[in-house]
Write a structure and sequence with these properties.
CATH superfamily: Antithrombin, subunit I, domain 2
Strand content: 25-35%
Distance between the termini: 21 Å
CATH architecture: 2-Layer Sandwich
Largest sheet: 10 strands, mixed
Number of domains: 1
Radius of gyration: 22 Å
Order of helices and strands: EEEHEHHHEHEHEEEEEEHHEEHEEEEE
């Protein structure tokens, strides 16, 4: 089985009890899903005009947010492993940002490092999204091209007055339609419909994203983003060489892991310092890769505290120009992660969007809306053949109440202690997934 990973992100919006209108969009239903869909008359722009400077600004901002979030989550649970999809979270909150105004919009842009004006930010996300999705259709010389599926959808209260400009922007730049459900009268049914969509778009890896009680009669809008990734290593590990090996945890406890081993030297992007080793393990096609950062013994927390978006992009630049033959040994591992990010995002400075009295999402509706929760869930499996990952995010909104050098020497990298890893699209520097593994046996 090739390596697979998944990520899901959900943003839930709640409306003020005083503003729950019943008039609104009323479009023909979609028989295939038994859910009515209010689609914009605009089709997705499949050829957005985005210059390289804007693409670079978006990549840098997304990387800055990725490591800001990583640091915050580590601070909240320093003894836990972690696996998130910064790209999914940024995409979902970019859709949310499209309807934010005033100081609410300012706080979102500051926390998310959205450093482009709205009229350039959303086309830049569209271009990046289309580029990433095209990776799965590329012709490769070895194996099968990896799978990468990114999906966006909005779930809105039927009869609620959503602004057409908002629906047009999301249709044009994110390919997202508005599914009409009845949160007010059948919240549980709506929850199950959203969960079914999420499960379907993550190949069954993420189930029951929205737990009982998350959706209420005051919910008016849910924004969902899913990303599913499955890829084989360009240079596979030899299953016959996988064996038990000691792994040294941060707590000083030794555990036994299944250590994968490469059969022979492979030329890989690699660098090392007194503080860490770092290597790029490409997936089939070479464009997407896992970046492994293995701090030296006793240096894990020091290296981790130094990391930010600028540091990571600089490391990627170093790796791209530094290739050496070598052998990598690393544990088989996997994990599932689920968390509400509402408190985390507020602690990072995004307070107004969650304030039922002061949030300004007037770009979405003339009725008052605020974010009631942000839920993130991921799945990861890494073995000898590759990786599988999935992620999902939901935002729930309620109504308010260098030169020539001597030939490099082969390196040996044994990942027998806690490590940091990222799954990255190399041409765009998009950080699709980011995590830390402290104990592969858990």
């Amino acid at each position: 089985m090739r390596n697979r990973s998944m990520f899901l992100f959900v943003i839930l919006f709640t409306a003020a009890a005083a503003g729950c209108g019943t008039s609104g969009v009323d479009n023909p239903g979609n028989p295939s899903t038994n859910v009515q869909e209010a689609r914009s008359s605009l089709e997705r722009d499949l050829h957005p005009d985005v210059d390289k400077a804007d693409s670079h600004t978006l990549a840098s901002g997304n990387a800055d947010f990725a490591f800001d979030l990583y640091a915050r989550l580590v601070q909240e649970k320093p003894e836990a492993s972690l696996f998130v999809s910064p790209y999914s979270i940024s995409s979902a909150l970019a859709m949310t940002y499209a309807g934010a105004r005033g100081d609410t919009a300012n706080q979102i842009s500051e926390v998310m490092h959205f450093d482009l004006p709205q009229e350039r930010l959303h086309p830049a996300f569209n271009a990046l999204d289309l580029t990433l999705e095209s990776r799965g259709s590329e012709i490769v010389k070895e194996g099968h091209p990896f799978e990468l599926d990114i999906s966006n959808a909005l779930w809105g209260q039927e009869g609620f007055p959503f602004k057409q400009d908002f629906l047009d922007l999301l249709a044009k730049n994110y390919g997202a339609g508005l599914m009409l459900v009845d949160f007010a009268g059948a919240a549980e049914s709506a929850r199950q419909q959203i969960n079914a969509w999420v499960e379907d778009h993550t190949n069954g890896r993420i189930k029951d994203l929205l737990g009982p009680g998350v959706i209420t009669s005051l919910t008016r809008l849910v924004l969902t983003n899913t990303i599913y990734f499955k890829a084989g290593w360009k240079d596979e590990f030899d299953k016959k060489l996988t064996q038990d090996h000691v792994f040294h945890t941060l707590a000083g406890k030794d555990v036994t892991v299944k250590m994968m081993n490469m059969k022979m030297d492979v030329t890989l992007p690699y660098t090392d310092t007194d503080d860490y080793q770092a290597v790029v393990l490409p997936y089939v096609g070479d464009n997407v890769a896992m970046v492994l950062i293995v701090p030296a013994k006793g240096k894990f927390l020091d290296v981790e505290s130094d990391m930010d978006g600028e540091w990571f992009l600089k490391l990627l630049g170093q790796l791209n120009i530094s290739k050496r033959p070598g052998i990598v040994s690393m544990p088989k591992f996997g994990m599932e992660y689920k968390a509400s990010l509402a408190d985390t995002l507020q602690d990072m400075g995004m307070k107004l969007p969650f304030n039922s009295n002061k949030a300004d999402f007037s770009g979405i509706s003339r009725k008052f809306l605020y974010i009631s929760d942000v839920i993130h869930q991921t799945f990861l499996k890494v073995d000898e053949e590759g990786s599988e990952a999935a992620g999902a995010t939901a935002v729930v909104m309620n109504v308010t109440s260098a030169g020539p050098e001597p030939p490099p020497q082969p390196f040996r990298m044994v990942v027998d202690r806690p490590f940091i890893f990222a799954i990255v699209d190399r041409p765009t520097n998009a950080v699709l997934f980011l995590g830390r593994m402290l104990n592969p046996t858990k």
